[in-house]
Amino acid sequence: MSTTLGDRFEAQTPPERSSSSVAPARLASLDGLRAVAVLLVIGYHAAPEWVPGGFVGVDVFFVLSGFLITALLLRELHRDGRVRLRAFWIRRLRRLAPALATMVGATAALTLVVGHETAAGLRSQVIGALTWTSNWVQIHEGWSYADEGLPPVLNHLWSLAIEEQFYLAWPLVFVVLMTLGGRRLTRVATVLLVVTSAALLAVWYLTADPTRAYLGLDSHAFGLLLGATLALGGRPHLLRDDVAATAGDTKRMAVGGVCGLIALGGYAAFVPWDSQITYLGGLVAANVAAAAIVPAAANGTVLARVLAAAPLRWLGERSYGLYLWHWPLIVIATRLTPAEHVRLAAWGAVLLAVLAAAASYRFIELPMRRDGIGCTFRRWTESLSTKGYRPRRSRAIATAACVTLVTALFAVWTAPEESRIASTLREGQRAVSASMENLDDARSPEPKDAPTADKATPEPEPPGCEPVPAGEPVSAFGDSVTVAIAPQLMQRRPESAAVATVGWQYQDVARAVRDATAAGQVRRGVLIATGTNGAIDQADLDALVSRDLAGRQVTLVAPYVPGRSWSEQALAAVRAVADAHPHVHLADWNTLASSRQDLTGADRVHPTGAGQGAFLDTVDHAFATC
């Protein structure tokens, strides 16, 4: 997402023109748009329940980045008759790499200091960050973009990787297309690329998984290409000298920009990342909305003047550093904070990120932009050899930088490949897969009191319950918590069957229960553990246990997901359903886990080794209680 962040400097003080020839108010509005974009992303990361679609801020950066890069290439080609590709790539490196390297080094060092498994997978993350391939590393490693448990500390660099890959490839494509057919052919070809990329987003979503669709350059380049299409079009904007905006143009662009902002706000408020809407047209529509805002921000419209407000401009100028720093600081802060205070910790981390971004902008980004990487380092080195207060400060900073670098290298060298929780879930998934062989053994005639599928109303439930003794196999359904306890469940109750997947929400679990019931693959004892990843539909759960599972002994696990917005609702739903039916029992994992921190791992959700045993003790007690 570094986007534009680096391109800002090109747009505001291009070397070909003096800064006096560019209207500062118009350019300030682009910084204001960046501020809006980065605030959406930060809101999504710090409080996803407030802005579930805030991830769309990344796409605002993509559209703006594609627009600015292409506009600058067009200006250079028009002025000089050619594009200096080497100089273009050096500018990109100089704008983006120093701040990135600083953040990566400091974050790696912090993982060693704070512990809590924050260094898990760090080696792959750092390699991806320094080679601009973070998106492909995450796809290869199978990391879920939406993981809230123990997400990688450099998880956010996927967008920066997409932009850098675009920066590498697009100038070459641009030069070839402009050489072959001029501006018109280039614009038509770019539109075709937009359509192809948007189609690939849907194809990968339907045939692979959301993470592959979202993180791939091929399937998420449409925003960058849409911005390029804007620059190649005939609309006036601040980087064009040949077309001036009329009053009618300005009014139409302002209306389009306001409509685009409203559409983006609605998307951010209501459309979550894992929704089908996102992949089957919604995200593309959001990019179109962003494309409507850019011309309004790049011309003298009312919206441009609003976006040029001083606070927004200040934040937008530092948006690259803010994007770089906010995510790792949020991850670290939330892992060091009690579960009930994670949201407060996340916003505290955001404030720290603002300070870090301001320092990065002042001491790293601006000097590197002005003097280049080599000259800046030489000046820093020379300041160490003089006398006075400033050299002492420089030596202190240099010493701290060396210590940080050594610590970071040691952290990367010693980082585990995966966290203990990831290892537990991997072993658990193996146990779940092995237990699927027991599904056929679970076939049994429908209980006498179970209703038939064609009855409009359920039969009365049996008056009471029969205990399910220890050792008797059961059918277990759930999410990653069920995956984690699956190996011990199979040891305690051999021949049990578990149907569970990491990331499943209530509707996935309920569907699995109904499918297994319809196939006659559910035993007398049924364990359901859900609510880890989202709210529970209480009415549907009630229907599930009273209709589909009538006549069986059902144990519902009280979920423990502290600090999540849906925690109280999920817990209340499970308890209410368990209280309403005599054949449904409650395994109160929530009360037990909240009283003993040693029972859950670093994410405060998944049971540790001791926690898995304690979890199953509550399950055994529930099955034995009538």
The helix fraction, in percent, is: 55-70%
Q: Which residue ranges are poorly predicted, with pLDDT under 50 across at least 5 consecutive positions?
A: 1-26, 444-457, 459-463
If you compute it from the alpha carbons, what radius of gyration comes out, rounded to the nearest whole angstrom?
A: 28 Å
Oligomer: single chain
Q: Given the C-alpha coordinates, what overall shape results?
A: globular
| Helical stretch tally | 24
Strand order of the largest sheet: 2-1-3-4-5
Describe the protein's topology.
Elements: H1 3-12, H2 24-46, H3 56-80, H4 85-114, H5 122-130, H6 134-141, H7 158-207, H8 210-215, H9 222-232, H10 247-270, H11 276-297, H12 302-307, H13 310-317, H14 319-335, H15 342-371, H16 373-383, H17 389-414, H18 420-435, E1 475-478, H19 480-492, E2 497-500, H20 506-518, E3 525-529, H21 538-548, E4 553-557, H22 567-580, E5 584-587, H23 589-595, H24 609-624
Parallel strand pairs: 1-2, 1-3, 3-4, 4-5
